[in-house]
């Protein structure tokens, strides 16, 4: 799937739409340069689920947890990870639990240690907005992508 996202609000709206169709157990990798819109997409995702608090990039904490009634969202930012062993130290495997969604920025800094994603989202600047490309790597990801395309 490929889509042009013209504004920050459009990225927030897309994140909210993705949240509404995403199952309560998924891993989504977010690729893009600094300032590409990865955290904006996560903010929209959380807003789409009704979260109204502050959503910031967990650049220094590595992970920000968000608890909902029947599931959890874990927002990772691996930008500062220099050694994949750091992920073992924070117990990253403990975040891959049923009924949780993992949104992982800069996954390339930990890919050898991370399980495969259900979806990979690539965000690149284009004109005044962003080009968003999403691909599915698992049956769960294919189902999410199918529902996402159906709702366009």
What do you see in this structure?
With 152 residues, the protein is α/β, with parallel strands linked by helices. It has one domain: P-loop containing nucleotide triphosphate hydrolases (Rossmann fold, 3-Layer(aba) Sandwich). The chain has 4 helices and 7 strands. It has helices at 8-21, 38-48, 85-89, 139-150, and strands spanning 2-5, 26-31, 63-67, 72-77, 100-105, 119-126, 129-136. Strands 1-7-6-2-5-4-3 form a 7-stranded mixed beta sheet. Helix 1 (8-21) packs across helix 2. The longest helix is centred in the first third of the chain and has 14 residues, at 8-21. It is globular, with a radius of gyration of 14 Å. The model has no long low-confidence stretch (mean pLDDT 93).
Outline of the structure:
By secondary structure, this protein is of the alpha/beta class. It has helices at 8-21, 38-48, 85-89, 139-150; strands at residues 2-5, 26-31, 63-67, 72-77, 100-105, 119-126, 129-136. The mean pLDDT is 93.
């Amino acid at each position: 799937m490929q889509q042009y996202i013209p504004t920050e609000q459009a990225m927030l709206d897309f994140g909210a739409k993705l949240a509404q169709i995403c199952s309560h157990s998924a891993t989504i990798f977010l690729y893009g340069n600094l300032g590409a819109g990865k955290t904006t997409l996560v903010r929209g995702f959380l807003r789409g689920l009704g979260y109204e608090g502050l959503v910031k990039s967990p650049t220094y904490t590595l992970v920000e947890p968000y608890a909902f009634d029947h599931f959890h969202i874990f927002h990772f930012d691996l930008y500062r990870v220099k050694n994949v062993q750091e992920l073992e130290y924070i117990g990253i495997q403990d975040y891959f639990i049923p009924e949780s969604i993992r949104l992982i920025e800069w996954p390339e800094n930990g890919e050898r240690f991370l399980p495969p994603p259900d979806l990979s989202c690539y965000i690149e600047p284009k004109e005044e907005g962003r080009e968003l490309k999403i691909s599915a790597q698992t049956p769960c990801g294919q189902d999410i992508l199918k529902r996402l395309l159906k709702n366009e």
